[in-house]
Amino acid sequence: MMTKGSPQMKGTPHFKEEQCAPALNLEMRKILDLQAPIMSLQSVLEDLLVATSDGLLHLIHWEGMTNGRKAINLCTVPFSVDLQSSRAGSFLGFADVHIKDMEYCATLDGFAVVFNDGKVGFITPVSSRFTAEQLHGVWPQDVVDGTCVAVNNKYRLMAFGCASGSVQVYTIDNTTGAMLLSHKLELTAKQYPDIWNKTGAVKLVRWSPDNSVVVVTWEYGGLSLWSVFGAQLICTLGGDFAYRSDGTKKDPLKINSMSWGAEGYHLWVISGFGSQNTENESDSKSIVKQPGILLFQFIKSALTVNPCMSNQEQVLLQGEDRLYLNCGEASQSQNPRSSSAHSDHKTHREKSPFADGSLESQSLSTLLGHRHWHVVQISSTYLESNWPIRFSAIDKLGQNIAVVGKFGFAHYSLLTKKWKLFGNITQEQNMIVTGGLAWWNDFIVLACYNISDRQEELRVYLRTSNLDNAFAHVTKTQAETLLLSVFRDMVIVFRADCSICLYSIERKSDGPNTAGIQVLQEVSMSRYIPHPFLVVSVTLTSVSTENGITLKMPQQARDAESIMLNLAGQLIMMQRDRSGPQIREKDSNPNQRKLLPFCPPVVLAQSVENVWTTCRANKQKRHLLEALWLSCGGAGMKVWLPLFPRDHRKPHSFLSQRIMLPFHINIYPLAVLFEDALVLGAVNDTLLYDSLYSRNSAREQLEVLFPFCVVERTSQIYLHHILRQLLVRNLGEQALLLAQSCAALPYFPHVLELMLHEVLEEEATSREPIPDPLLPTVAKFITEFPLFLQTVVHCARKTEYALWNYLFAAVGNPKDLFEECLMAQDLDTAASYLIILQNMEVPAVSRQHATLLFNTALEQGKWDLCRHMIRFLKAIGSGESETPPSTPTAQEPSSSGGGFEFFRNRSISLSQSAESVPASKFSLQKTLSMPSGPSGKRWSKDSDCAENMYIDMMLWRHARRLLEEVRLKDLGCFAAQLGFELISWLCRERTRAARVDNFVLALKRLHKDFLWPLPITPAASVSSPFRNGKYRTVGEQLLKSQSTDPFLNLEIDAGVSNVQRSQSWLSNIGPAHQEIDTASSHGPQMQDAFLSPLSNKGDECSIGSATDLTESSSMVDGDWTMVDENFSTLSLTQSELEHISMELASKGPHKSQVQLRYLLHIFMEAGCLDWCIVIGLILRESSIINQILVIIQSSEVDGEMLQNIKTGLHAVDRWASTDCPGYKPFLNIIKPHLQKLSEITEEQVQPEAFQPMTVGKTPEQTSPRAEENRSSSGHGSIPQGEVGGSSLVSRKEEDTTRAEEEEPFQDGTYDCSVS
Question: Biased-composition ranges for Polar residues (predicted)?
Fold first, then answer.
């Protein structure tokens, strides 16, 4: 056969004819009859090798001549296990053997064969002559079901497909010539439980043109893609054997024949469904009537063809016309989900650093936070004459990309989003880039062949100048460059004559726009490298077996210490030879200094696909930055880790300075983030594409045919694997150093947890006893970190109960760990331990520990935890076996602005959640009609059970303590948060705990707790004319506006218990019991706002009415500002202002006022009149005192209490005279009332007759009404009774004035009442 090209060609060479396909002519030259069916054809250099079914091998010259050579009979070729001459080979020996499939391997100089009986072998000519006597075969003895074969020339691998469905990959042992099994490509039951053994025999195996992946298909269909050393990248079987939503089964794609397209971007497939009337465009969106030829598109990692990218921390994938990056802002990112089901994007190859544009340029979260790629479309002008893209590279910061097509190159800036092409197309078409390209600062370094000068060159172009040879720096080289890489300011080049050349690169001093390149050193490698094509990558690194401590000069640790060469999967290291005399260079010009020679090479590792190192240095993370990372395909990853002696002690002579640690990861690594201890990659998912939407038949068949694949970004932590490997090898000290250097990483706690979990699962579930278990070592290791308690409990909660005994045998008794948590004040973790104790111990033990925790939580005001504990204790008591839900480890943020919605969504049940706060507990003794929520019934049902009694006892004890210590603020929080029946309890304790023993002490304590200033100047306000409502509004308003924020902060500083979480006791009113963070300071005030309407309805005020009010009023929308019309016209004189400011100075924060009034109301209800007096004193409102006296007169009060009040007030009087004269004026005002009190004291009354009076019935005109908060218990707030005389103002007027007084808070939360 012979082809003739079309003669037409005009203009520039290589340019025009690219635009159209060249015309081809085929004509027959000769027919040869070999007299048997031809099984396989192979081109071997100048000859054609033909295998026929009669067991003969024919060697035919391309001209059609046999050259008189006889056909070789396979039976005469000796086969043995290896090539060592001592063993004579046995012959195949039976007559009907013939070759079923064969492929020639140029780099091994021989051909891999599969015989018809399933045996496989490798036949090689012993000398250069190709005759039967000169051939010798080797075979592995264990393969008997071979079906097909494919050869990878770059890695010298032979992949034999087998009838079992697996692919066995063999290599030839250099010394003995035997066939060694390198690895297997097989589906595992773990990944594909349904079909791993139902695929049938392997049908076809094909290596990609760049030798970096192999595609495998099976008898019953399906397509899979594997990396060189067996990492599975894609398998369509996940989606292929699935069912569609209409219940029909999806048949997998059966493939009869397939071939890779240029550069491995396409896979052309002839499907097994029949191939009549095929019309096909070479475009992925081909509309095929009857499926015949299908076209799959792939994207591959830049590392496959341009391995110099491995010192980057970005992932760059290249397609035929676009690039996928993992950097760039989230806003620019797009999802590379194929535009149609059949443009089927898959990672053709995944090998490339994926990383954080060097941490300055973007944060980790942008890199890891989402799964989409940033897609860059390659300039169509460049593509149309230079398709396909051969190389691509991205710079360190991830801001510029350069691509190389057939000729020339182009680059793109992610910042300006513009491509830069050669201005002169002749220059572009005159260069062919050969060895890849790399970025050095702002320069692009590349090796190319200059067509017109027929000269190999090394060129440097500046990114910022125009793309033109005039601005390039050109250096001529002797031989073709195959690989190129940049390390700091050095360029390393590997050439076709098997030599390595080092150049220095630097900016020229004569102008900022040029860089100069000078040769530093040349090293010939021809002794070690059989064929230059076998070198996969070459890099310069600062890694050496000495780790810098033992070097004589410290800066040498960061120099280019060694060359790493990947020779067909073997990683070879050549270090500088420091054994000779060390010259200290004092020369002014560093380029003049003689570089040290290299030692002979050492093999570091086998089956290596990729190598990552970095040239950055970081004293804190030396382990990670000075390590060498290797990706080994199916075997996972390896790291060559430096070992450092502690505190620069002398290293042990017996301890090697580096160690190779293998570990498995679940993703295919494309980049390593060194400091962040992360591996980045891409993952390919095959989804079931359901063609429910497109119902026309042609399309439907296509979508059924094509697997629908999505390529997503992914990342994985690897630190726990390394720590574990170090611990296995008794290198605990190194593990500790490494872990401490990474302890600041956000996922470090997760790392410890993963390590503990993995070791536990393996050891606790192993069938045989483990001679040297690792769990105790791991447990001991984790105790070195403050997160120990947390790690253990999280791990336990995530493993099954059966393994707990094994775990706690290693880490310690859960009871002891629980106590440690309590001592460390880590209550949330303690709560998690409680759940473990509940499962492992008898109920009595868990109750005892729960009680401890409950008391501590009460003490610290952790209300959420308290509620959980109450529920937990009840569950133990009522014998409910269900595990109570865990306490959250992090505080749940409150539902922001849960204000008005709360009322709208949950009309009347005010309990916070059905199980946690029983509503019926809080009826305000006939003051409010309190609808009982669903929880109310449940509570009453089992309220007689001992458990509730037990819990109540604890709550009462706590309340008693708080009262005895005069911690009223804490008492309020406690009652509101836990729905404690404060009023009924106070009624019972009126004469015991609820007595005020020391009025002065109580007064001082309240001032401190509520941040209420002691009065300084005589507070004339009481008698002043400003008491009327109108002016008062101004004061209130000023007070609110200025005090909210500052006081809030004050409160936090003062460290008042619980302020952090609920700034008012009523904070917990949002839906579900969630805590309010100080950050959302508006939470509580909002609640003030919508609670206030309740207060103005007196007796019949039910919660229901509040709902109606809220919904109808505009305050829900928050547009109430100031209702008082007169206010705008109100002008204040100087003296009035002074007066107001003085009054403000003598008041505490608005919220404290609200809280005090609320407490006043509670104590009134409970009849604790002595406390009411104390609060009246603090608020300095005579009307309160007055009202109490009214109550005392109108009802029978315990004489003891009267006596107590009397003595208490005298004590206060004495104290005011000596220590706090500010109180005197107020005491003088209430003197007359005290006289009355003394008179009453004379009479004795029976305590039983006491009926608390409803305060709501005595509204007062004068005092401003502070908005009432309401606690979770749902007390409606009630206007404070401040009676000036006992005349009752009509309820209506009262309400209106109040509404006008309300004024929104500054911080966007509203306090309002509804008139």
Answer: 330-341, 880-895
